[in-house]
Every structure is written in structure tokens, then in C-alpha cells.
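Quality-control log, excerpt.
Job 1 of 2 completed; input and output follow.
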Amino acid sequence: MMDKYSVLEENLKNTFNMDAIDFETTEEIEPLEGIIGQERAANALDFGLEIKKRGYSIYVSGLSGTGRNSYVNLMCKRKACTQLPPQDWVYVYNFKENTKPIALSFNPGEGKRFKDEIEWMINNLKKEIENAFVSKNYESMKSVLFKQYDDESEKLINNLNGIAEKFDFKFIQTEKGLISMPIRDGKMMKEEDYKSLTREEYEDLRERSSALALETVDVFNEIKDLEEEYQDQLKKLENEIATKIIELYITRTMNKFKFNNKLIKYFDMLREDIIEHISMFRNEDSISNNPLAILQGSSSESFFKRYNVNLFIDNSEKQCAPVIMENNPTYKNLIGSIDYKTEMGVAKTDFMFIKPGALHQANGGYIILQALDVLSNPFAWAGLLRALTTDQVTIEGVEANYGFASPIALKPEPIPLDIKVILIGNPYIRLLLFQHDEKFRKLFKVVADFDTEMDNNNENIIKMAQFIAGQCKKENLRHFDKHAVSKVVEYSFRLTSHQNKLSSRFNKIADIIFEADAWASKESSGVVEVRHIDKAIKEKNYRNNRYEEKLLEMFDTGDILLDIDGEKVGIINGLAVLDTGEYSFGKPSKITVSTYQGRAGLINIEREVKNSGHIHDKGVMIINGYLGYKYAQEHPLTLSASIVFEQLYSGVDGDSASSTELYAILSSLSEVPIKQYIAVTGSVNQRGEIQPIGGVNEKIEGFFKVCKQKGLTGQQGVMIPHQNVKNLMLSEEVIAAVRLKKFNVYSVKSIDEGLEILTGIPAGKKDEYDQYPKGSIHYLVNEKLKKYSKSINKTDKTDEQKKVNI
């Protein structure tokens, strides 16, 4: 009877023929370019990279190891190579508002040339202007102006002295200018003469001086006007000389670049500033004029910093658009920063301290970011969204995000942003962002979803072989022979736990490739063979299965109770999967059920002690629904039952044990024993249909290891949902045991089929009188529940009668 439920040997794993591929080793195969089995993601990524509209940034969704990073980088570089390199950017001094540096753009390579040209121009202007003002020509023209001024000044002074004689005074020229001196006995008075004056003489002197001042006001105004006119003429002369030189150099420099309004405006401000500060170019400033100059540096040096050029983004070496993978996307690394230096305890900065971020470096191209990294850095996510929303990058300190004023008053002009952002993360992060961040929904409209598996077909198997060939070439590994490639493909099936799906977790496949090469190297083998793949997998498992070995040891010593022979009522072996990170394995567990008369229903002991998850609790409630549907159509379900996973202390979740628990309940109610040598896994619905579960290979192999350790009898086996047959990729050891009829794998579609396997008794189907056949499992269960119901009703009537008598 049980044979009809047995899974045939050929269905225990996927078998395929590599002979369709004509090669002996991967050395004969062209390495793979691109990615395997990700057509949906590849099409989405290609669309996202093509469309240039705002809001079409790309979120690449998928688990780590699916090749998403390398493929995104490859595709971005391919797209970038079809585009010209973007513009250079420089920051220059703003002569009107010195706290707001100006950003100028240039064709690729011209930014560096602009910096060099401005530096060359300023250095030459210093020399030319300084030389111009010590030249004979300048001195000659200056002498002419001075002589004219001196002659006119002398005439006016003579007029002053003509007036002064009337009041016995004389005007003389001193460092402080013209001063009047009193005359006594034909000579200018000295200090001792003042001391000898009588009061009357002093008052007379003072009155004459006041009168002289009033008399000479107009002449003094003429002298002042003459001096101002001389200074104006001198300044005009200096400006004419300097302007010719300045205009020559500025025109020459401007003509080397393509004109635009901002550049013209900058050169206009530059021209005005140089003329306004022509004295600095004449080297008239001196350290000696500034007591702090020794500590602060030359005032001249500090002044000329305004003519520097901050080469902010230099694309002179680029042949195409940039592709930037920012691995540390902090706010500063993304948006840019303004550095500073400390002088005498004071933070100082200028436009030369403005540093670019990754967005500036990738501007005009592509930037690839890891979603988790961006979200983990304070303000980085907000800064990224702000830049994408405004289409520009504004450099400001982190303080601005807190609403505080920055100690650095510099506010550089924002730079326009033309960039394609590719954000890489897992599906869960995308879901959270989509639900809780409106800006994310508006800005990341393209999703490239990378799957963890792909279809099993010849094309993908050939590409898998090409992938192996590519790894061998790229990493300088030994090449794989055909059978070794076949073993890697088989390992790929095992990763997906599906006979019709290959794994696209290429990082895990690459690990086996590298480790197999290492074992081949240890044997000095020329190529990697099947035994090296087997060794790599075995050793990888051995490095990570310490916990499994400890559990197997406890099964062997009897510390963990598990029966694998005989039959028992209300006791069954369930199967679970434990995951230690790099390694997953199956662990059998004894499940016991006690049923008795009462109204409590099903008591999940794991839930009562808060040791079970929501999904497991749901599975227990489904069992209750099945019992009601099956046995409580004519009388109430008066049942109390307790379910427990024996010796389980780490918690339980999932509904893959729901069918197992139901079998134990039905065994307890029918008092029909269950075969302890058959372990069970599978979910169940309220109609008794068996549903698929995960981890089927690990569960089967876990029970097999315990049976092998205790001794295989040929009766032992595992019962699985029929839908999970396609998921079987069992180890050669288990398959060999099935082949030799030392172990069994059964598949079932319903609880009724499972009951027949576990008890050897038909479950039973209702006849035309709506009755189960006598002796069937359902008949025995139904009779027990009727008995419980009658007993409960009798007890209720007795209690009611007692109340009436009272």
C-alpha cells in the first residue's frame, strides 16, 4: 500500500546531460559577458538608464549575491562610454559678495586651463604693473604733473604770504602742511619769544591770527582744490597706464575661452577689482606696515588669494561620462564640504577650501549607491533627495540640517545636477521607503528587480558554464572539466531547492568555484574535477556544521529523545530546519499530543509559554478548523487537546508542522498508533489538503542522518507534500539509501493519504448514509468525539438538575 506513495529514485534530484555542450574544459568556452536569467531586471535597468526625465532614478532590488552590483556597474560603464565627458567646474572669488563664491563651468579640460591662465595672468600683471610704475615714461609723465601742481601751488603760497605780511605772519611748508608763523622784528618767532610776550601782546597776536585765517580761507580752498586735482590727475594717469596693461591681459585670457554671461561678468568684476587695488600690484604694501603680518603671513599674500581658482571638478582626463560607486555615502562625501583651518584659535576658510562630493564627481554621469549605507548615515538620505528634487547640489554644513547657524559663513553657489542615481538594496528596504517616503515614490520610479533563481534550460546552463569560464580567466583559476561544470550546475539546483530552477546567487557559486580550485591546487591537478567540487562542498559544510554534529551526538546518546522504530499513540516525529547563517540543516523533533474530554479546545503549549510565533499559532487554529469541519457537523466539538514539541527550548514558528500535529491528534483520538520510523512535514488547510513547505531537502537529510546513526532498517523514511517533489535535490548518500531500499521518501496530497501511510489503516470515506466505515481512522475519531459530547451533555444536565434542586 505504501509503495504507491513512494517517490521514485529519478525524482529525488534533477538529472541533466552536459553532452549537449561541446567542450572538454572551460578553457574552450567564451567567458560570459553580462548576466544570466535576469531579463526582467536587465530590461528595467536599460530603460531607466535611457530615460532622462526627472523622477526616473533607479532602485535595483534583490538579494546580495545575485550579480546586481557587478551588472549595474557594467551597464553604467557601457552607457557612459557612449556619452561625452561632462563639464569642468571651478569656484572663484565673488568680488561683490565675498561669502558667496561663484561657480563657473567649462568644457572638459578647460577648467584646468582656466586656472592656469588666471594664475599666469595675475603673476604677469604683478610684474608688468610694478615695472610700469618704475619706468622712465611714468616718472616723466608724473614729473610733468607734479611740476604743474608745484608751480600753481607756489603761486598760491606766494599769494598767502602776500596777505600774511599785512598781519606780520608768514606761511611755511611742513610735514603737516602749510602753517602760519608770526613775525617779530623781521624774524619768525621762536618758542622763547612766546614766553616773553605780555598779555596785551599775546591777545594782539591771537586777534591777528584769527583775522589772517578769515582772510586766507579762499586761498586755502584753492590750494585744496589744486591738490585734489593733482591727485585725480595722478590717479587717472596711473589708471590709464594700469588699464592698458590689465585690458591687454584680460582680453588675451578671455579670448582663450568660450564666452558666456557668467564668465563675462566675472572678468568685468576681476578688471574692476584689480584697478581698484592697483596699489597692491605696485607692491606698495609691506609686512612692516602690519605688526601681525609675521604671524598671519604677508598681507599681500593674503590679498592675492582672491584671484586664485578652485578647480572643483576636473574632467580633463576622462574620455566619457563618469561612473562613481560611492562605498561610504556620508553626508559630506555625497554633498561635498567646506573645510577650514585654525589660526590663533579661530576657524578660517575661503572658497579654495570648498571640496566636491560624490554627486559632483558623478555629475553628468552615473552614481551607484547602496541603499542601506545611505540610510545608515545621518542626513545623507535627506541630502540626496534634496539634490534630486532641486536638480542642484548645495554645499552646506551638517549644522544646517539641525537648524543651527554654521560657524563658517561661506555659501557657495549651487551647481546644477544632471545625474542618474542607481540605488541598490533589498526588496524590504524598497517597500519601507515606498510606503513611508513620498519623495522616494516620486524620484525612484524605475525598479530593476533581480531574482534569486532562473529557469532551467540549455541556454542558462550554457551561460552558467560561461560564467565558470569567466571566473577562471578573471581570477586566474584552473579550468573546470565538463563533469565538474555539471557538478556546479547541480549545486546551483540545490541552492534553489528546485529541480527546474537554477540559482542566480552567483556569490555562493563563485565560492565553490574558488574553493574547488584550491583543492585542485593542493592535489597539483591540472584541471578542476568532480571530486574537487565534492570536496569543496563537503569541507564548506564541515566548517559550519558543528552545531549539527552536537545535536546528532545528543540523539545518539539519548539526551534528545527520538524513536525511529515501533508505533505509538499520539506521538509523531516532526521536522524543522535550523539555520546557522552559512549552513542550514534539518532537526527531527518529537511531537506529543494528549486528548481528553473537555471544552478547552486545542491547547498549544508552545504558545501558552510564549515559545511560538504567529504563523505556528495560525497552523494550530487551522487544525481546530479541520476538526470542526470534519467531526462537528452533527454535535459540538467537546474536546481538550494539548500539543507540545518535546525538548524544544529555542522557540518554534512556521506552519510546516501543522499536518504533523494533526496526525498526532487523530492518532490520540482514534487510539491508533503512528509509525515512529516515518517523520512528517507539511502544512495543512481546513479541508485536509496538504500544502508545500520549505527546506524539504534539509529536513529529509536531517532525519536520514539520525536514522543512519541509530541504524537503517529499511522501514524509515520521510513523508512530504506532493508539491515538494519538484524541490528535491537530495544528497547522493540519501539517494543511494533509497535505491537500496534502506530509506524511503513518500509524498501525499491529503491528510487521508498520510494517515494510511502512518497507521496502515484507511482513513475512511463517508458512505451514502453519511457514515464512515467501521474501523477506519475517521470512524474511530468520530466515535470518540461523540462519546466526549454525550458525556459533556450528561454532565451539563446533572449540573442543571442540581441547580434546580437547590
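Job 2 of 2 completed; input and output follow.
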Amino acid sequence: MIRITWALMRHSLPRLIAAGIAITVGTAFIAATLVGSTLIRDATYGAMLAEFKGADVVASGHYTPGSVVEVGDQPGVVEAVGRLDISGVASVQGREAWSAVTPVLPDGFTNAAVITGQLPRGAQEVALSANLMERLGATIGDELELNAELLGPHDPSEPWQPPAGVTADLRIVGELANPSPLAGPGSEVLVTQGTVDEWLASSSSPTVYGELLVVGAPGVAAEDIAAQVGQLNPDAVVQTATELAQARTADVTGQNAIFTALILAFAAVAMFVAAIVVTNTFQVIVAQRTRTLALLRATGATRTQVRRSVLMESTLLGVAASALGIGAGIGLAGIALAVLHRQDLRVPLPESISVTPIVVIVPLLTGALATWLAAIAPARAATRVAPVAALRPAEAPRVRRGSRGRLIAALALLVVGGGMVAAGPVVASTESLDPDTALFGGVALGVFGGVISFAGVMLGAIFVVAPLVRLLGRALGALGGGATLTLATANAARNPHRTSATTTALVIGVGLVTLMSTGAASAQASLDEVLDDFYPADVFVTSTNWADDGTTLPLSPTQRATVAESPDVSETTDVAEVVGALHGPAGQIDWFYLEAVDPTDAVAVLRREEVVAGLADDTILLSARTARELGVPDGGEISVAAADPAGGGTSEELTLRVVVTAAGDGGLITLGTAGALWGSAEPTSLWVRLADGVDQVKAIGALEAQLTELRAAGGSEPVPRVTGPAAERQSFEQVIDALLAIVVGLLAVAVVIALIGVANTLSLSVIERRRESAVLRAMGLTRGQLRAMLATEGVLLALVGAGAGAVLGMAYGWAGTAILLGQSEHVRLVAPWGHLGAIVVVAVVAGLLASVLPARSAARTPPVAALALD
């Protein structure tokens, strides 16, 4: 039987190749995903270790200079260094950029690699990362002004202290390799430890380090050092650098794990659809081999041998196709790594891919098992071929219809699953629940409900697909189509079991594409509303100049005039940032940033006037979250006072009526209220409305350039920060579009695999209808009409599958959007009509293409030969 199996496989090679391609694609997805996940994890782990500058132990807590010395004196410790959170604005000839600021570490630690020049050694020396040098247009030897903020850890028992601001004039002595963006800011300003000590000495606040880096002596276990350091400060969190890197890698790659799971889910879908294709393929092969199998039975082959032959054939196909898929997946991962190495990613990528046993075993077993399982039903059908079938005309194929039990089970699954999906958004939007709990509960209901309800769809497809095909055929017949359309409709609906299996493959692929498209379109529309509320204007220009006590200094009149006179700007309004203390009926906030505006002027700038609705001198606008924290309802009253930066008290209080708003997350008061409490309210920022029709992203860049040139021309104030919803919206759109493109690309493969199934179904239909087609040809049906009938049949199947998938995908997409945005007040459900139209067009074209080979086979067979076969 082995030799016979090989011979049969060679004879059916074209069809086996089609099924093998489906398996190859699915296993390639799995292999590439597993390899890519490993690459991302290793790259992230390397970046996280680099963040700790070569330390063996990292402690997070409150450490004074004395406690740092105490740790350094412990046995087995070579060096201990405290770290502060320092950031600042670096300025070179009027050009400015924000960056992290760190000191040069002593021997035993790893400093940034020097590209040119040297590490700073003197108190007035500084080195910059390469990308920062490029942005500032700086070279070695240039003078640099640094305005930095020293932010230490906050003790909840003490009044909040604003960060201390320092200014230093430094000279650039070195250019450094860019730090990895995975480990924090993508740029770095490196100064000497002496410079940082001078800054700390000039600060009125006590020096408190939030993090401690410890290097151990050679041969001393990092775990032992961590235990010693932990005993000195029980309140601190002490970990070895390896443990902390692993934990942070897990945090960062949590999104990678989700993405990996997402792609593996699509690979599973592709494998499932491929299994359907394999089933249909072997059904075609068994139908073609009816006489061959009967002759084998007549010459002594048992049912077990025939069944074993079919299963052996499927297993060999699965193993061979899976091996090709593994090779293709590893090859794709290798190509991707080579491309990434040529990009300036500043991420420590591995030199080569790592092929672990799981990368080979999982796809191989998955592909072989899926193919073997898919061939069980055809193998059972092959054993039913009686030996006498080789000597008599083949009987008409038995039409399998759904049973009453199947119908009841399908309806039960649909009702239960659909109810869970409908309950998901309700649970996710329940305000009485913790937001994380509500979201988790909603997602769990949506996912499990979707799986259960879709199982009901698959189970009940046999009852629905054939009627849908007939309905579509009648609808098209009303527009004209004649006997060809009538015959195609009858043929497509003749075998509900096989037709439903084929359309199910299309429903899965098209449904998932539509789900992602609907979710992306709805998320984008909802995001636009959120941004419109959170960002009340097109652009914000905010001062980056601050006083010694950490409060923000106002914008200069020249800066405000430059913005107002920009050709891209239509209107501006002044905004003053102040810090207040809020006292409500059930809570208080001692340090809260408020924005003061003139509501009349603001209306001319805002895209949505509701942002300042109800704002007056005796009112304050607060977000719902802040109002809940204070325990005040809409229309209730709170007292507001000017907060003292030193934490020593507040000024006279005002009682204001609260207006709860969905806009933003802070609070709004009028300039009159700010003047009454703070004495004066100079504008620290501007709300800007751009002219209609301008490119908002380019307009923001133009404003930044104009303000930079103003500084370069002799301006005394730092360049303000320019932000806006246009930039945020573009960033989110890029993420959504990139994810959607990847997902649609992956799912398109499932659709292609499903279309192979349509071709197989038509081929099986051609085999079963050989005598019927011959009779039609004998009665005058031309070859062109026969081709048209099969093409119409393919289009009907494709349209029904695509239509059902689109409807289900849209419903699931809307449900998923409502669940994920359940806590938001802005949920818009949008239909991606453009994508749906493209799906219909693709379905029609694909149905036509799937019918080409079967139609060619049917048309080439002469009527006499087809009749003679029976």
C-alpha cells in the first residue's frame, strides 16, 4: 500500500500542492511569530540591562548621601552611586531640545560609548548623544546652556516640593552613542558628578536619591549584596540587575506578548481554514479515485488499508508542507533581522536569529496534526467505496442536511454567546465597578461570548447558507441572468453541508478582516472626539521657562506676537497656569494645576464651545474624575485657594460652583478668578486655532521653527513647547493604521486559503455533475455557457461567504469597540464602507478566479466521454 499511496499522490499532485500551500502559509506564520517574539524579548532584555550602567544590584527608595556612603562601605561592595531624575533644556545658539541629564559614573560602571571627543572631566564640560548633537546643530567645542530640573522622590508625609531649577553654561567635549529608546529617553546629556553636586548644594531642598546602583566585588553573588542592601533600608525595593531587567522586559514585552498572541491567533485561523481546504481537497481526491479505490477493494485491499492510505497521504502532505513553512518562516525572520540591522534603531539586536526546538516542533506538529485531522472524514468516506462500484455507474452523491439536534444546539450557542457579547459593553461601562475590573469583565464576556456565538454560526451554517444562495440567486435573477444563473443557483445550493463548509472558511477570513476594520474605524472616530475634548484647541504653545521655586514663568510678548502673526494661525487666546488648593465636601487636593482663560475670547479659538460652557467668575470647570475625588456633584460648591509652593499655607479662599465637564482632566477658571486669588495671571501658554484648510502637522512644525528662530535671533526666553491634537491624532492614526495593515495582511492569507476551498468545492461539484453537464452539453449548452454557469456558482458562494462574514465582523467589531472604550464617554460606532466595498469586489473577482480551473476541466470534457465514464 505504501507504493500505491506514492503513486496516487503523484497522480493527484496538483491538488495536493494547493492544499500544501495552505498548510505552508499557516505554519510559516507560526514559525515566524515564535522567532520574532524571541528576537524582541532578547533585544529588550539587552536594552534593559544597559540601563543599569553595569550595576549588579539596583535599589529603589529614599537614600540620602550618608546612606549611599553606608551602602558603599558594606563588605563585598565596590561602589554605590545614587541616581536622581534630572531632565532639562539644552540650548546651542538659540536651538533647544529636551533631554535626560546624567552624571559620569565612576569606574566599575558602564558609561555611554564615546564616538568622538571624550567624556566630561571638568565642572564646565558636557557630552551629548549623537542625535541630540544633530538636533541642536552642535559640534565639539560649542558652548551649551542647560536649564535643568532636579526631581527627587516625594515623601507622602511631607508637603509637595516643586523640582529645583538650575542653569549652567557648559562646553561640549564629546559626542556619545545614542541610548536605546527602550530603556528611557532617546537622548542624553552627560555631565560630571561634581557638576551635579554643585547643583545639589545650591538647592534649598535636601538631597534624596530615588535609586541606588551598586557594583559588587568579583566573586560575590549579586543576591548576597542585594540582601545586605535590603537590610539597611527595609522600605526600599532591592533587586539584582538581572531580576529587574527580566521584570522590566516582561513589562515592556507584555505588549509584544499580546501582539504575538494576536498573530498566533491569526495563524490558528489560517490553520483552521487550511484544514477546511485540506478536507475539501481530499473529498475531491476521493471522488476522483472512486473507481481506483473500488478496484483496490476488489483486488483484496481492506477498509483499514484504504483508510490508512488516505491518512498516510495526508500526514506526508502535512509534514512536508509544515517543513517548508518552518523554513519559510525562519527565512522571513532572518530577512527582517537583516533589514532591521540596516536601520538606525539604537536597539541592541542579536546578530543572528535563534532557532529553538519550539520553533521547529510546534509548527511541525500543528501542521501535521491539522492535516491528519482534516483527512479523517474523507478517509472514512473512502472506506465506504464498495468493490462493485468499479463495475457499475457511480451513484449520485448523498446530500447531507442538518438534523434537528444540530439546529437546537446552534440556536442555543447563538443565544448564549450573543447574550454574553451584548452584556460585555454594559459591564465595561459600569461606573460602580473599578475601571480595570469593568474592562476585564467586559473583555472576558466579549471574547468567550464571541467564541461561543461563532461556534453557533458554524454549526448552524448548514441551515442558512443554501437559503441565502437561493435568495441571492433570485435577487440577481430579477435583474436578468437566464437559465445559466438558475442552474448555477441550484448547483451551489445542492449540497448544503459542503457549501456551508466552504463558505465558513470565507466567513472566518472576511469576518476577521471586517472586525479589525470596523474596530479601527470606530476607534479612530472615538479618538477624534476624545482629542477634541481633551485638547480644546488646535495647538498649544506652552512656556518652558520657570522660576527658582519651580513655577512656570509667562510667555514673552514677542513670543505671543510671533504665534499670533503666523500665516497658519487664525486666532489665539491667552491662558494662565496657576496652582491651587481645592477643598470639597468629601476630599481635598493640596496641589492642583488650573488653567485660567477668558471664556469670551476662548470661544473664538475652540473647535467645540462646550469646553467653556458654564465658565464664569463664580464657577470652576472640573473633570468628572476630579469632582468624584472631591466628593462634589455637578452644581455643588468647593473652596479654592492659591497653593503656596513651599507648602506653608494658602491665601484667602473663594467659594466656586462646580460645573462637571468631559473636557480635559484638569480644571478651568476665568482670568478674573485667577486675578482675585493670585493677584495677577500672566499668560503662560496660548490656545491656538489654525486657519481652515492648512496642514496641521506642518503648521505645528512651522510654529516651532519660527519660535526657534526667534530665540536664535537674540530672544532671552527658552523656546516654548508646541503641541496639539493634530500631532497626537497623527501618532494614534499611525499606530492604528500600522496594526490594521499588519492584521489585514495576515488575514488576507486566510481569505486566499479560503478561496482555494471555493475552487476545490467547484471541482468536486464538476466531478459529481459529469453526467449532468454532459446531458446539458448534448442538449445545446455551449462551452462558454458551461463556464459562465460555474463562474456564477463561484461568485454566488464567494458573495454569500463575504456578506455573512462582513455582517458578523461588523457586529463583533462594534461590540469590541464598545467594550474597550466602555469607560469613555465618547464611543462612536462606524461602518468601514470603503473596506466593505473592497471586500465585495474582491469576493466577486476571487469567485471568478476560483472557477477558472474547474470550468476549464468541465468544458474540455466532450459530452460523449463524460457519458461514457458512467
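Post-run check on job 2. The two ends are 27 Å apart (CA to CA).
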